[in-house]
Predict the structure.
Amino acid sequence: MKFTFKSILFTGILAMSANTVLIAQTSNPWFEGWYRAKYGRPAPTEEARIQAAQASTAYLAATPHQVTAPADTRFENWYRAKYGRPAPSEEARIQAEQATTAYRAATPRQAAAPANTWFENWYRDKYGRPSPQEEARLKDQSR
């Protein structure tokens, strides 16, 4: 009796584990969404999947669509003032713009003055000197 019960139990566990492996998903959409929301980029597994798909896709000679700047920049200005870097949507736009110009001849870029000077004015009023971002911009211009 004990031997029959053990063999049935072992067979059942083996069958359940084999079926679990067969129906397991390779990705978790909830995790992908959470990771993208938290870090602003795809998860490593999703990134590897995207790169593999891009590597297997032939380069198209068609010109890509033009990426335009958003009409309402309040959020972008607030995010840049708070965190000192572009918002994830702005970073994506900049990266897409750079990707479309990747095959063009490289030209020296001039650092543009910030469109929103509120943060610079506030920083100068509070600390009496340019902000670190402004100093970096001026340093880049002098090169």
Notes: The longest helix spans residues 2-23.
